[in-house]
Amino acid sequence: MNSSRAAALPSGATLPMVQEANDDDGAASLPPEAAGTVRFEVRLDNFSGPFDLLLSLISKHELDITEIALARVTDEFIGYIRALSAAGDDFSLDEASEFLVIAATLLDLKAARLLPSGEVEDEEDIALLEARDLLFARLLQYKAFKEIARFLGERLVEESRRFPRDVALEPGYAAMMPELSWRMSPPDFAALAAKALEPREPAPTEVGIGHLHAPAVSVREQADILGHRLQEHGTLSFRQLTADADSLLVVVARFLALLEMFRDTVITLDQAAPLGELTVRWSAGEREWDALSISEEYDVDVST
């Protein structure tokens, strides 16, 4: 096909495969829709040629590429050239050369396929086998692309006939909708926008302890009370020492006070049995003892 005519045609167009006619002159007929089209060509590392034509030949026979009779392929290509001539088109010598390259490649692949497996030691034979697999993969990929393109084309044509329904809402349905009344003025919307854009307060870096309270009962004060009672009576039980306690905190504070007094060796603790009655005895005698000697850790104000 002449170059000036091919340049004016869209790229990727395909010329349908033609059959040899059974008439006397042997010329193949060319479909009218084939006029004005060019074939999609692909260029690989091992050959370059009209890929559409190669795909049509292989797909038509539905055989392995090595099982195709090259003479038959050549006859069909000649019929293709005759069809172009019958239609008044000139074929390019480059096109014929490209077909010869394809035929030579197919011949090499077929020869490599017929070799026994143990004799395939030449690097060129191995390269030909790899080229065969690559050719098959390209053919299948191209066939898949053509099927997808055909499907998308049909969908585009089908969807081009559809249009959205662009009409107003029918009065009967419009009457069912409640009327929208604006209760906010533009300044109100502006105030809301300003409030939404205000920077938020940063996260606090310190944890407040204002909710924590100081000790409600002083251990030192309770120790002073217990010291005077034990000095007066000598021996008392824990139950007696806490009989006048008005809260559980007082009981706990007096128990802690006894432990501090026991550490100062001014009292002794006796318990006849586990969980039995705890007896407290004053053991300091006449030695002076002051509740101020008790540790201050119990009376520290945790809120400061």
TrEMBL record:
Gene Ontology terms describing biological process: chromosome segregation
Organism expressing this protein natively: Arthrobacter pigmenti
Any coiled-coil regions, as ranges: none
InterPro entries in alphabetical order: ScpA (IPR003768)
Keywords noted in UniProt: Chromosome partition
UniProt keyword Acyltransferase present: no
Protein name (Swiss-Prot/TrEMBL): Segregation and condensation protein A
Domain of life: Bacteria
